[in-house]
Amino acid sequence: MTQTPPTAPVLACDAAVLDTARAAIARLDSHLIGSEWVAGRAEPIPVLDPATAAQIGEIAAGGADEIDRAVRAGRAAFEAPTWQAMPAAERERLLLRLAELVERHADELAAIETLDNGMPFPAARAMGVGSAISAIRYNAGWPRRLTGESVPVSVPGQWHGYTTHEPLGVAALIVPWNAPLAITANKLSAALAAGCTVVLKPAELAPMTGLRLAELVLEAGFPAGTVNVVTGLGAAAGAALVSHPDVDKISFTGSTATGQTILRQSAHDLKRVSLELGGKSATIVYPDADLARAVPGVAMGIFGNSGQVCAAGSRLFLHDSIHDEFLSRLAGFAAGLKVGPGTQAGVAMGPLISAGQRARVMGYIESGLDEGATLLTGGDTPDSPGFFVNPTVFVDARPDMRIVREEIFGPVLTVQRFGDDSPEVLAARANDSVYGLSAYVWTSNLGNAHALARRLRSGSVKVNGSGMEFALPFGGFRQSGIGRENGRMGVEAFTETKSVMIGW
Ligand code: NAD
């Protein structure tokens, strides 16, 4: 009997690019300390393609020893005249050169992100690599603009009073797996723009673009030791970095639970700490919203990157008068989303990062059903060895349910209704969360937009759209974090302010 050979799937990117990405993943199995790639000494950690569950590489499992060497390299580089005396314009030039290299290798980096993290190639290209380039270019503008103030002094005498922003020293950058390249490039370029040196600890579940970026940092010509990378588990490499006495600053993005641990661990020597943590962001849709834009906006706000987005709009509030129509359009949109490996053309939603994350999300879906919410769509997993979950929408959600209160970090939307509530009442319902990262409003009424923008207790409020603007500060109220990334604040977070008074 003859068998028809399976048709090869149409790829979202060039096959040669995928080969280059695979070769990079196989090559990048070491730590970067100073300008040397240093092999690991412990049992390596396997790297899986979440779309197939197959191993595609391995990384070194670093611990206290590698962290200590990397921090020493960072300190030596920080104190070296090459870095201390480097003109601000030269730091700017190096950062712009790095952005250029990221742009030149954009397809390869996106393909690495797709294989390592699972996100669809077009999203990895636009949001992952595109954001990384924007962030680096934006931060490259700061070395020459990080000015202090000249301050009128009122104490008796003749004084000149002014402030300066001095780099903190060695910065530990600890990043999550959900948007590894964009987050790493943003933190790294802000730290370098401020004049710090860094030790990067990528997420063990998606470490590869961070390592490839480090290669490009060397190629760009940054002095040895300005950027060091130690891969490994959070409890080993991450914890050693947080407790290292010669680290001046921790810039962490990840879960609220780990953020709390880091804050406790860094208390004994009062390290400067920025925390970008979890969220449970509300989306409010008024009846006057442009539904043709709002439906895909809301859908991709929770299904984009399979819901593994800190600022995902996971709690939807719909006005009674549009509730049914909106949901029928949303269900239609979700049904049209192709779920599959991010390397394949037409795929809009890739897998979750790991079997553990899929089990966690499925556990939340079960709890939603147990607590009485109704599934509008999804709630299941496609038949595949990869870690996929179908786009899921729960209606009849109540504010006391776990699916409404807790961050799921998966493609699960909960829907609640509102009537002719005042902005105060509606904002209070949206604010009923321990988190406060982002909030979204869809309306064509400027009064609603301003009233809610003022009352929503979250670090960002976006009306009629979403997206990351690197010139605007980003961060959380309440348990969504401490401090801000992006904008002037994002670079100043890597500095200490000094006040100077000179009498004459
Ligand atoms: P996680 O907290 O498990 O891990 C994040 C990083 O911390 C990883 O590199 C991990 O190895 C490391 N780590 C773990 N334990 C550590 C410890 N004890 N000491 C030092 N480092 C340690 O988070 P995750 O699962 O990788 O990422 C998902 C979470 O990240 C979600 O909660 C999401 O909301 C959040 N997140 C927030 C933002 C934001 O900007 N606010 C952005 C992306 C993701």
Outline of this structure?
The protein is α/β, with parallel strands linked by helices and 504 residues long.
Q: Please identify the structural class as seen in this structure.
A: alpha/beta
The percentage helix is 25-40%
Shape: globular
Mean pLDDT: 97
Low-confidence spans: pLDDT under 50, at least 5 residues? Answer: none
Tell me the fraction of residues in β-strands, as a range: 15-25%
The value of Rg in angstroms is: 24 Å
- First CA to last CA: what distance? 99 Å
Q: Can you offer a commentary on this structure?
A:
With 504 residues, this protein is of the alpha/beta class. The chain has helices spanning 15-27, 64-79, 81-84, 88-104, 106-117, 121-140, 180-194, 208-220, 234-243, 256-265, 291-303, 323-335, 355-370, 402-405, 423-430, 446-455, 487-492, and strands at residues 31-33, 36-38, 45-49, 54-59, 150-151, 159-167, 170-174, 197-201, 227-229, 249-253, 272-276, 281-285, 313-319, 374-377, 392-395, 412-418, 438-442, 460-463, 481-482, 495-503. The strands form 5 sheets. Strands 14-15-16-13-12-17-18 form a 7-stranded mixed β-sheet, with helices on both faces. Strand 1 and strand 2 form a beta hairpin. The protein binds nicotinamide-adenine-dinucleotide.
